Structure formats: C-alpha cells, structure tokens
Amino acid sequence: DAGVTQSPTHLIKTRGQQVTLRCSPKSGHDTVSWYQQALGQGPQFIFQYYEEEERQRGNFPDRFSGHQFPNYSSELNVNALLLGDSALYLCASSPMLAKNIQYFGAGTRLSVL
Amino acid sequence: DQQVKQNSPSLSVQEGRISILNCDYTNSMFDYFLWYKKYPAEGPTFLISISSIKDKNEDGRFTVFLNKSAKHLSLHIVPSQPGDSAVYFCAASGEGGGADGLTFGKGTHLIIQP
C-alpha cells in the first residue's frame, strides 16, 4: 500500500518564476493538506482540499494556489516566487472521517535563487 | 504569535532511560493533539494522539499526557532506544476535525546516547 507520494523531490527555481508541486494521497484518503516547512521551523498549514474544493486556508498569500483532481491527487502552485519561498513543501492526506490524523509525504525541497 | 510551543530545541537522553518531551499551547479552541516524529529527508510520521476529553493515551513505549488547565502536554518514551533519535513535533487541531489544518510547534531534536 503506497503512502503519500510527492514529486519532484527537489526543485530549483529563480525569483519571479512559477512552480507546480504534485501529491498523490494514501489509498483510501480523500482529503489533502499542504504545509510549508522553513528551516528550523515546524510545518505551517497552507490549505486543505476536499471534494476538489479548497476548504480551509492558512495565512498564505494568493500567490499560493492549489487544485484537487477527481482521483484525490493534488497540486500546489506558487506564482512570482520569492527567495523566502525556499522551503520543504509537505503534502498530507487523511480520510474524511478521521481528518485529525494526517499522513505526510517526504516533501519537495524548493530552492529559489 | 506561536500557538504551539516546544521550548526545548534539543534533548539528550541515555539509551534505556525515559525521554520526556514537552509542549505548551495557548489556543483554548484546540481539542486534539498529536505527536509526529521526523527523520532527515523524510516526512513527519504520526506517533500518537490524544483528544481533549482524555488526560492520557498510551501506545507501547509511547505515552502522551494532557493537562488542559495548564494547556500543556508531554510525550514520554520508555525505554528510549537509539532509533528514537529524531525531531519530534507537537501539533494541535481545533473544532472541525482538523479542517483548519494542524498547528505545529518548532520541534525538539531528541538524541539518544548509547
């Protein structure tokens, strides 16, 4: 049973560019959440998707957007990249009935130069 | 303003002894608390959780204690093993079953010494 998978593993972009990160949830999970983890910090909640809609959003600007597909997989898009967007981006999935316990992927390490 | 605080960036414990990791929170709307363990180059792995209606939850070597009046929880690992060396994150969620996403502390780096 595959867990949460994320791609790519690493990514290097320059300021002003746009990036798309991808996530496939654990089998049987229909809710996907995205987090940003800066160096030395805990993960920070970006937003959560369920039934192909953004359900909740943390304190992140509109440059951060997402999408969920009918197969429950999800994308995180970041526009107009800033140096401060350099971080580990984590995807987590959970089943609708037990949303509190979220299962994480290994993350995508984004470096903005 | 940090709503979940882990005030010890690191903790060193001898193998076989008890490891105690602490976490404080400020938001009284939090009603579910979780501990995650993270190894380098891996995502956080769920360890154990506790609902605000309980004050203790145990799973093998791991026990989480919740003191609601003090807004404090702790994770006890007994006995500590070398494989327990990792960064431990405390997380909390509010009403709505996690619909707000999890709020994490900054983590505590646990080092188990032989």
Topology:
The complex is a heterodimer of chains A (113) and B (114).
Chain A: E1 5-7, E2 10-13, E3 19-24, E4 31-37, E5 44-50, E6 53-57, E7 64-68, E8 74-78, E9 87-94, E10 103-104, E11 108-112
Chain B: E1 4-5, E2 10-14, E3 19-25, E4 32-38, E5 45-51, E6 56-59, E7 62-67, E8 72-77, E9 86-93, E10 103-104, E11 108-113
Count of DSSP E strands of chain A? Answer: 11
The proportion of residues forming helix of chain A, as a percent range, comes to under 10%
Major sheet of chain A: 7 strands, mixed
- Give the overall average pLDDT of chain B: 93
Structural class by secondary-structure content of chain B: mainly beta
Oligomer: heterodimer
The backbone outline of chain A, from C-alpha atoms, is globular
- Which value, in Å, is the CA radius of gyration of chain A? 13 Å
Question: Terminal Cα separation of chain B, in Å?
Answer: 38 Å
Sequence of secondary-structure elements of chain A:
EEEEEEEEEEE
